[in-house]
Amino acid sequence: MLNKPIISVKGLNKLFYNPDKSSKIDAVKNVSVDIFQGEVVVVIGPSGAGKSTFLRCLNGLEDFDTGNIIIDNIPLNHHNKNRLEIRKEVGMVFQSFNLFPHMTVGKNINLAVRRVRKKSVAECDKITVDLLDKVGIIDKIDNYPGQLSGGQQQRVAIARALAMNPKVMLFDEATSALDPEMISEVLEVMKNLAKDGMTMVVVTHEMGFAREAGSRILFMDNGEIVEDSKVEDFFLNPVEDRSKAFLSKVL
Amino acid sequence: MIMIIVRKEVFIDSIKYILFLSIIILVLTVSSANMNYNWQWYRVPGYIISFSSDGSIEPGRLIQGLGITVKISVISLFLAFFVGMITALFRLSTSITAKIVSRVYLELIRNTPLLIQLFFIYFVVSPVVNITPFVTAILVLSLFEGAYASEIIRGGINAIPKGQWESSYSLGLSSLDTYRYIILPQTFKQILPPLTGQAVSLIKDSALVSTIAIFDLTMAGQAIISETFLTFEIWFTVAVIYLIMTVSISSFVHYLEKRNSYAQ
Q: pTM, whole model, 2 decimals?
């Protein structure tokens, strides 16, 4: 059981066509990777490397052309039912928060728990309060997203994804849209999550987070995984030339 | 200094307003004098409220017509919204058949005159399927206004940011739940003003049903005029009644909008 990956990706390919269909770009090229329970996988690389596209393929927000994705023993394919099952187990946090502006913070968090997990109102309320407590904004439960700062909104978005009690959390540049002084409050929540043993796949430009909370680095460039190594190895002894070049620029 | 400027502006505005009013009154008096028209406004109230022989108050013929207009408009309004919703969802769906059906309906309705649609259904279709003029009127108005409503609804749905769909899907919500809880509630807030405009159009367009022997407000007005020759008094009264209806709808929706606004 310990050796069974929770996310298994084999030979994943995804093409983006130019609008006039004259040419195509490999957004994700022949990506194979196994991710195990409790791992915090940080995906880094230059912009346009396919990191976000790869991440969005994992919960079916983006269709892929060839390859296999199996998450929690469920194959991600054209069956809508499988897709919904996988999304129940995979939480996602977006760069632009994407909270529902017409609902209070509390409703944002427990809508999916009510509708998808079919929990009772009392259970939902408890989950909502516990999670808001965890991300440190319990006093905002009745506010609307528009009344919150960016950092607070992103923490609500994390709580919303966690409410489904997912087995995996995906973070798509969760701090890129934040003002500098708010980045740390969100990173703190993510670090605590990692400490609690959550399996995470994190696309980020925050090298500090990668070093501190990450357990494994996937370095992507031009749609491929160039280097897949432990965090310590990657930062101390990068193997590939492209990784070295990238690190010399960002560190 | 600022006070003086403000007072000066108010003063100039008042002058403009008074000037504008005087011109209108002048034009009206001059033209009605030239018309040699014998204004008999005192006869109009009898067509709004009448007193029966035993002294109880009864609605006049104009108000009876108004009742029919309101009935047709309200029913058509609900049906038009329903038709518009279905058409919008059909157009946004992935099914080719649904797309073609909704597109053909839309183009057919939007590119032909309402009056001809009304005659077509009244003279050609309704004898075959045997429906009353009242039902015909509601059918035609709902289909006509529904086509326009569908474009408003579709535009509103398309204006919702892609991220709202994505975050809803990523939480495991189905397409149906995403529409129901996330997309449509936000859409309605956006499209309420243009949809109200469409409701106002519907009320005004309902005047056309007088051509298929329905005693609505317009028809009642016409009938009274042909008996009494109070042409302008009755037409003005009819227009004011339409105005009262449409303005109250607009104000009510404006009030709703204000009450339901949330911080964006």
A: 0.83
